[in-house]
Amino acid sequence: MQDHRIRKLVIVGGGTAGWMAAAALRRHFHGGPLEITLVESEEIGTVGVGEATIPTIRGFYQQLGLSDIEVMRATQATCKLGIRFNGWLREGQSFIHPFGHFGQDLRGVPFHHYWRKLAQAGEPTDIADYCLGASLAAAGKFMAPPRNPTSTLSVFDWALHFDAGLFAQLMRRVAEDNGVRRIEGKITKVNLRPEDGFVAWLDLEGGARVEGDLFIDCSGFRGLLIEEALHTGYESWSDLLFCDRAWAVQSEGQGDPPPYTDVTAHSAGWRWRIPLQHRYGNGYVFSSRHISDEDALAELKAAVPDPLLHEPRLIRFNPGRREQVWNKNVIALGLASGFLEPLESTSIALIETGIEKIKALFPDRDFAPELADEFNDWSRREMERVRDFIILHYWANKRRDTAFWRDCNAVTLPDTLQRKIDLFLGRGHFVRYRWEMFAPPSWMAIYAGFELLPSAVDPSLDGVDPKALSAPLAEMRKAVREVVASAPPHQAFLDQYCRPA
Ligand code: FAD
User: Tell me: the pLDDT tens digits for 75-110?
Assistant: First the structure.
């Protein structure tokens, strides 16, 4: 039998996506005949942003044999318990989307039904008071979640804010130590096989050529292989999500870093503030249809509270996705595969799931078309579901002060999102589709933060006396408060574990 296995895997690009793929795939195919080569150009450089993550990142680097503390030390990271949304519903109001559960389910019925029933009976309470992750974050404290939680009240998770450049360097070290070959050089031409249009080899400046069986395109927004060479096509979602530019700038760190990302609504978009141990990352994501670059820059500069470390950089993007993430013998990963604004820190998480898909559907050299079909279908659904979650944040706002917010509120929702909202607002039902990154607690956090609440609760509660709920729910809030009171400040955690010895 002929051996059709892929022998040469070429990764194009050495940003976060390229080096994450190199490190993870080298480990996955450890000891086998697969050669992995990564080509990158220092002169072209990387996008240089991407500092807020979601908890899946920890599972990703733990699979590479790295501990939380090793990664935190190597990347000047801080802990992230969630995202604080400021001024999204209306000016002056904030809420946290935590990585954690709310309350404790009773008699097999999700907690939020009891919470609503109590409120409908005249005792409204803040749902965040039933969530340990949200309450720790609000108090500026941090502790690792218990390993064997005795109740859903103590179920929460955490992620990192890290320096993107240092994280890519760490991934590079892991990849190279395990045998990935790195080639420094600018790719000047992508050569296709005349018979089927598959990529055959890359020409580099200076005359070298790099051949491969399978290419992973991590070349950033331009999509050097997937778009410039294969003309795959891009589905833009700019009619649903208006933001298409960002000013990004780093600033000096001042004060203790909070254990959450701040995202603050502005006149034509929103501003991120990401605390690291040695500095802050800041940026204004905005809609060029609603504000000029100059005015957006002025808004950003006026809002960042600490001295800037350099002049802000403008980044342009087109929200959407590559129509086929896998086309012929090229698989796009990272920005080359599409982009959704970083409101829920999903891009790096999509790189992780992209790598999982590559592992799960790794082809032979005969490239069975069903592999690419499955990969593309899975990628599309996953990305559409993230898109829907992000649209919800814009659509649900109650700000009417600028054209931007009014236009966001007037968007026609995709059917998939409308259905979710209808089900929730009816009787508090959640549906979770396949390949969905965000579980019901995340949707709950956003619904509650935007005061989108069900008009009725689960019918099994019809016989429950709301007054009887007052005491058990007060107990839950008390249990959360007691743990928060005994937890150390986030800064104390960093001082203890993350300072160089
Ligand atoms: P890049 O970093 O652009 O890397 C591209 C690579 O390709 C570089 O090494 C470059 O040298 C190489 N290359 C390109 N052309 C050539 C050539 N001709 N020859 C050789 N090499 C070439 N994600 C999150 O998860 N959280 C966040 O908080 C977050 N914030 C973001 C904020 C903004 C404003 C933007 C735009 C993105 C953000 N992201 C975030 C996304 C995140 O930055 C990216 O997903 C991540 O950095 C991966 O980028 P990349 O590796 O795909 O591309």
Answer: 999 999 999 999 999 889 999 999 999 999 988 999
Q: For residues 470 and 475, give the distance between their C-alpha atoms in angstroms, rounded to a whole number.
A: 9
Beta-strand runs (E) in 19-119: 35-40, 78-80, 82-86, 94-98
Atom of ligand 1 nearest to the CA of 346: 25
Token pair for 71: 């990664």
Query: Domains in the chain: how many in total?
Result: 2
Same domain for 352 and 478, yes or no, is no
Query: Is the same domain home to 448 and 424?
Result: yes
Closest ligand 1 atom to Cα of 164: 47
Selected catalytic residue, list 8, 80, 141, 328: 80
CB 394 within 8 A of CB 446: no
For residues 183 and 144, state if they share a domain.
no
Contact call for residues 203 and 211 (beta carbons, < 8 A): no
Q: Is 39 in the pocket of ligand 1 (CB under 6 A)?
A: yes
Mutate to test the pocket of ligand 1, among 40, 43, 316, 337 (most ligand atoms within 8 A of CB): 40
Q: What does the alpha-carbon distance between residue 204 and residue 61 come to, in Å, rounded to a whole number?
A: 31
Q: Supply the residue whose CA is at minimum distance from atom 36 of ligand 1.
A: 315
Question: Is the model's pLDDT at 501 over the cut of 70?
Answer: no
pLDDT tens by residue, 224-241: 999 999 999 999 999 999
> 160 in ligand 1 pocket by Cβ < 6 Å?
no
424 and 474 fall within a common domain? yes
> Could you tell me the pLDDT band of residue 500, with boundaries at 50, 70 and 90?
low
Task: Please report whether residue 335 resides in a domain.
Answer: yes
Residue of 133, 172, 174, 178 whose CA lies nearest to 40: 172
In this prediction, residue 56 carries a pLDDT of 97
Residue 316, beta-bridge partner list: 245
Do 435 and 452 have their domain in common? yes
Residues 6+ apart with CB under 8 A from 381: 433, 434, 435
Q: Is 458's C-beta closer than 6 angstroms to any atom of ligand 1?
A: no
153 — pLDDT class (breaks 50, 70, 90) = confident
**Domain span including residue 216:** 8-77+162-237+319-382
Q: Is 229 in the pocket of ligand 1 (CB under 6 A)?
A: no
CA of 479 to the centre of ligand 1 (A): 43
Q: Is 15 domain-assigned?
A: yes
CA–CA separation, 249 and 44 (whole Å): 19
80 a catalytic residue: yes
Percentage of residues in the chain having pLDDT higher than 90: 92
Q: What's the rounded Cα separation, in Å, for the pair 140 and 257?
A: 8
**Residues 28 and 58 both lie in one domain:** yes
Same domain? 419 vs 482: yes
* Angle formed at CA 272 by CA 269 and CA 274, multiple of 5 degrees: 175
